[in-house]
Amino acid sequence: MDDPRFHRAGAARRLFDDPDPIKVPSVAWYQPLLDDRRRDDAAGSPRPPKTLVLSAAQERVIFGQFNYARFRMSKLQRCAQRRPLAAAQTRELLGWHDRAESLRWQIAETNLALVLAMAKRVRAADLDFGDLISEGNMALMRSIDKFDATRGFKFSTYACRAILKAYSRLGMKTMRQRQIAPVEFDPAMERGDAVAESRAHCDRGVLSEVKELFSDNAASLTEIERTVIFHRFGLDRPLHEAPMTLEQLGAMVGVTKERVRQIQSRALSKMRVALESLRPRASVIDAFPN
Predict the structure, then answer these.
(1) CB < 8 Å & 24+ apart, contacts of 13-19
(2) What pLDDT, in 10s, does the model give residues 62-87?
(3) Distance (Å, rounded) from C-alpha 279 to C-alpha 268?
(4) Nearest to 60 by CA among 142, 5, 141
(5) To 5 degrees, how large is the angle CA 113–CA 115–CA 116?
(6) DSSP state, 85?
(7) Residue 129 has pLDDT above 50, yes or no
(8) Contact, 135 vs 179, CB < 8 A?
């Protein structure tokens, strides 16, 4: 927001040095109170403590400082569009940016109770309390950027109206979403894992087909190939027990570990061909690793 005072000589001194410093408020009360309201979610939940409330004169001072910092940033940014800034100008730009952000947060923290007060007013609507707080905080920050203190109105008047309008938009958006998908949230569905269950069901079906294929020896496996597949993949063991290793199988049949791997690979290839002949659309045997 521009102001004729910003263009006069000595504006920075008059805006920052002459007025008395404005105390930075404590927001230690905010998070515990938010947690209490989420637990209680009732009209009888605790109220915000009496935080620092700015007078109209103090609001004019702090908004004047905030907008002046943004005014100086804007001037330097316009200079940067014409030519690169010198090192001193860059440091000045960053300094005004830091000051503007600090003042913005100070104004927001001073007026945090406005968001809670407006959220309490619309609790009759079927809206989540966390969504109300989030939307209200965003509306508060937008109000700080757009508020013109030179018109003589209190910031709370402007901000409360903006927060309520944001809640109205949130309510209409929520209503449209529920009309499109009128399904209530079910916590039991959040704990479920449909993908994993579907995968496990598919694996059980494939394993059943493979066992039947092996039992009928539809792949025409040799005796040593049947022995390797039978023990290597634990067809005689429960699923939770570990199958035999290549080294253990080699010691059992009297060949090297590498030879067992070759026998296994050849047997799996035969079984793939046999399974694909039984199920033309099947790809590979997912039950066994290569």
Answers:
(1) 15/61, 15/64, 15/65, 15/68, 16/65, 19/61
(2) 999 999 999 999 999 999 999 999 99
(3) 16
(4) 5
(5) 65
(6) P
(7) yes
(8) no
Q: Domains of the chain (ranges plus CATH)?
A: 4-180 (1.20.120), 192-278 (1.10.10.10)
Q: How many of the other CB atoms lie within 10 Å of CB of 290?
A: 8
Nearest to 168 by CA among 122, 203, 106, 206: 122
d(CA 153, CA 205): 72
Other C-beta atoms closer than 10 Å to the C-beta of 203 total: 13
* Helix residue spans in the chain (DSSP H): 11-12, 30-40, 56-82, 87-110, 112-121, 129-146, 155-180, 187-191, 194-216, 223-232, 246-253, 257-278
Q: What's the pTM?
A: 0.58
CA-nearest of 89, 59, 65 to 16 is: 65
| Residue at token pair 């269950």 | 197
3-state secondary structure of 218: coil
What pLDDT digit, counting tens, does each position of 142-167 carry?
999 999 988 888 999 999 999 999 99
Which two three-digit tokens encode residue 187?
A: 């916590």
CA distance 270 to 268: 5
